[in-house]
Amino acid sequence: MQRKTGPTTRQFTVCAIYTRQSASSDDDISSCEIQYQSCAAYVHSMRELGWLLVADRFDDDGYSGATLDRPALTRLRELVARRAVNAVVIYRMDRLARSLIKSATLLEELRSHGVRLVIVTAPELGDAAGDNLMLNILASFAEFEREMIASRIAESRTRLKARGQRIAGAVPFGYTTDVYTKQLVPLQDEAEIVKWMFSQAAVGKVPADIAEQANDKGSRTKVKTEGRYIPKFGGNPWTARQVLATLRNPVYTGGFRSGSGTRPGCHEPLITREVFDAVGQQLDSRRTRASDAVSYGDIWPLKGLILCAVCDRPMTPHTVRHGRITYCYYRCRSTAGGRKPCRGQVSAGQIEAAVCRQIRLRKPVDGRDHINLREIPEFVERLSYDHRTKMIKVLLKQQPEPSEETQ
To answer: Does pTM top 0.70 for this prediction?
Structure first.
């Protein structure tokens, strides 16, 4: 871009800064703000050479470098396609992408539109053949680092599971975490409320009544925080759904959910397994089998089994809260593999009930001839759902033929 200044014409370089941080962290060293300030300082130092900085910011905070499906990056690519900038400034090569193929795609896209890539930590790299080789090497190292991090995380999770330790997730009501080990430790006041809830449920009290009595006692749900810059939330009156989620949570028996079952934990249990099972039987006995209403708390019997028939990607649990009501869905993973969002979803209660009705038991059990929610993983290998036609396809596990004695 040129600007006339009297008898001479000066060449200007219009720059856009791109920043990315894959996850929120208490460590601000690699935050988008710090990256932006470093890049802006570099552009400012080049102002004598005619470098100008666009007013728009392109920050992808909380997005992985393994995919190009990022909002700020999409806006930046549109700007590059219009040739509205001359240079893209990044702090480090891995901020652009952590995949060699995707890095090469972006580099080729920039070159085809005559846009220069400027790396603040390696400003000497230009457009020469040797510089292009170095950029590809940096992209390879970024991909290698990402794969190493993923491998170490997987190894760490396996090691924690083998030791019966907590991996991650919100701290449940009744517990806090040890400052050093991050493992669960009973919180006396909350633990007493949990024990009281189970004792009430064991004698037949319904969750709605337990929630009302807990609120009358002055008890409130757990206050939680999700990070340094996110305000506290929780501390609200109990609802029947929250009480039900508490009564269904195996963490209070000293274990953790793992897939469709549980795994042993190393924390102190608040109740015995016998009490937990007795309460579960009480809750199951009051459930209306034929009703379409039916995903409670953290019970997701189709988790890991259901696929989107449109794009063949997993459909994962998703909840939407409106006031005191929580709506449960299975939703297609919109960004898996960097592909365009599918946006397919289905009500959890409706599809779970439909699956239960489709699968008949060979021999009636307790007066019912179809399976219940908790039995779905025992009978279903996988299933797919097409949100356009509302069609469900179920692949059943091979079941042994009943013996003559049981017929």
So the answer is: no
Contact 89, 17 (CB under 8 A): yes
Interaxial angle between packed helices 240-247 and 273-285, expressed in degrees from 0 to 180 and rounded to the nearest 10 = 130
Tens of pLDDT along the chain (407 residues) come to: 555 555 545 678 899 999 988 764 444 556 888 899 999 999 999 988 889 999 899 998 878 777 788 888 999 999 999 989 999 999 988 888 877 778 788 888 888 888 888 888 887 776 656 656 666 676 666 666 766 766 777 777 777 777 777 777 778 898 988 888 888 889 999 999 999 999 998 888 888 889 899 998 898 888 776 544 445 667 888 888 889 889 988 889 888 877 667 788 888 899 898 888 888 888 877 765 444 444 444 578 888 889 888 887 888 888 887 766 778 888 886 555 555 667 788 888 888 888 888 887 777 766 677 787 878 888 888 888 888 888 888 888 766 554 444 33
Which of 79, 69, 65 shows the shortest CA–CA distance to 32?
A: 65
Q: What is the C-alpha separation between 231 and 238, in angstroms, rounded?
A: 20
Task: Give the residue among 140, 142, 122, 120 at the shortest CA–CA distance from 34.
Answer: 120
Report the CATH number of the 2-159 domain.
Answer: 3.40.50.1390
**Side chain identity, residue 100:** L
- Taking domain 182-286, whether its CATH number is 3.90.1750.20 is answered by yes
Q: Quick check: 222 and 215 in contact, CB under 8 A?
A: no
Residue span(s) of the chain under CATH 3.40.50.1390 come to 2-159
